[in-house]
Amino acid sequence: MPLTELSPDQLATLRQTQRDAYDQLVGRGLKLDLTRGKPSKAQLDLSNELLSLPGPEHLTDAAGADIRNYGGGQGLEEIRSIFAPLIKVPVADLCAGDNSSLALMHDTLAWSVLHGPVGAPRPWSKEEKVTFICPVPGYDRHFALCEELGIEMVPVPLTADGPDLDAVRELVARPDVKGLWAVPTYANPNGVIYSEAVARELVSMPTAAADFRIFWDNAYSVHHLSGAHEAIDVLSLADQAGNPDRVFVFASTSKITFAGAGVSFFGASPANVAWYLKHLGQRTIGPDKVNHLRHALFLRDADGVKALMARHAAIIGPKFEIVLQVLHSRLAEHEIASWTEPEGGYFICLDVLPGTASRVVQLASGAGIAMTPAGAAYPYGNDPDDRNIRIAPTYPDETEVREAMEGLATCVLLASAERAAAEHAGR
Ligand code: PLP
């Protein structure tokens, strides 16, 4: 029965039942973790062949350069040509770097602050204020980069096919608004897939700042579960709209091969790529091309990446199913929560009753179930409704996912019953 239809007596009973269930849960001394959006050991094992590549017979790239030496700032063409069609960036405009795309986001943001991006009247550090648009819920590390570099953040709602365009349009009329974060495919954390129409509008709309940039983070563009969405060719859309320099595209193999030893990618207009390589050349004398070549040999081509991603889906798909099953069987009838059913990516978003997310996470922690802090998916950790919880099911095994989710459901029920009882008492 929906929680709202329970009489005060029924509510008191539910609350007591859930309190007893929770006390039992605590008594089990669990140690479970649903915070980590990272691949499990079984997923990492899919790429173990990398550990014996490239081998002493592969010491040069196709152009004959020694991959063990300095140089080749843009990265090996062999690996760039595998990922170019997947993330829809021309090979010539794609750069391959070391193991973290987040590091590239940091670099491009820091260089924008220090030097200004292409077309900037001055470095962002010389502006009175720099503001980024942050579709919410979003990726906490994007927001942390902004905080680190003194960039203010304004949340806008992330709707079913991308950020609320009216809100974005209003904000980009301000000259201090210099950027927008976007995770266009299977967004972290709510799995949203941007439509091409939204992407076109984002790259077309007039902006007060000539140096406005969209940080287009393609972290999950090939990470399908039930979905099969192709990445959007956002650079062509921006070019057609007459704003070729508006977009920085990022991606990596972190959740394709090894999260700690993969390859990152940066793609953009020729002018942006020249800007990027100029500053990159000051920071490093060249990327890890041995890693580029071993990835190219292992993955072979875009179809090789797709085949590997299907094997990942076979491992993590059942874990997502378990999360959804438990949420449905334990929470649906009470009408106290809603959740996403993502077609890909790494997360499920659980929205609980307003004002209860922090309490749920606190209860879960008390029962030995680590959850990402409530509010983490919002700039400054501030979820104004205190209702969003991010569930990351990929890392634990299936038994642990089920146990953690059963425990979490108990916490949601208890927090909801507490809230409803308090509301009744206050009437
Ligand atoms: N971007 C998003 C949206 C992510 O969710 C993550 C990791 O969870 C990253 C970037 C990190 O990528 P990388 O490992 O390439 O630094």
| Cα distance spanning the termini | 21 Å
Read across the widest sheet, the strand sequence of neighbours is 2-9-8-7-6-3-4-5
Q: Structural class of the secondary structure composition? A: alpha/beta
Q: Which word captures the global form?
A: globular
Structure summary, number of beta strands: 13
Proportion in helices: 40-55%
- Mean pLDDT across the residues is 97
Bound molecules: pyridoxal-5'-phosphate
The largest β sheet comes out as: 8 strands, mixed
Parts with pLDDT < 50 across at least 5 consecutive residues: none
Strand content: 5-15%
User: Helix and strand succession?
Assistant: HEHHEHEHEEHEHEHEEHHHEEHEEH
Radius of gyration based on Cα positions: 23 Å
Per DSSP, the total helix count is: 13
Account of the protein in words:
By secondary structure, the protein is an alpha/beta fold. It is built from 13 helices and 13 strands. The strands form three sheets. It has an eight-stranded mixed sheet with strand order 2-9-8-7-6-3-4-5, with helices on both faces. Strands 10-11-13 form a three-stranded antiparallel sheet, covered by helices on one side. The protein has a two-stranded parallel sheet with strand order 1-12. Helix 1 packs antiparallel against helix 13. The two termini are 21 Å apart. Pyridoxal-5'-phosphate binds next to helix 4. The site of pyridoxal-5'-phosphate has 13 residues, from helix 4.
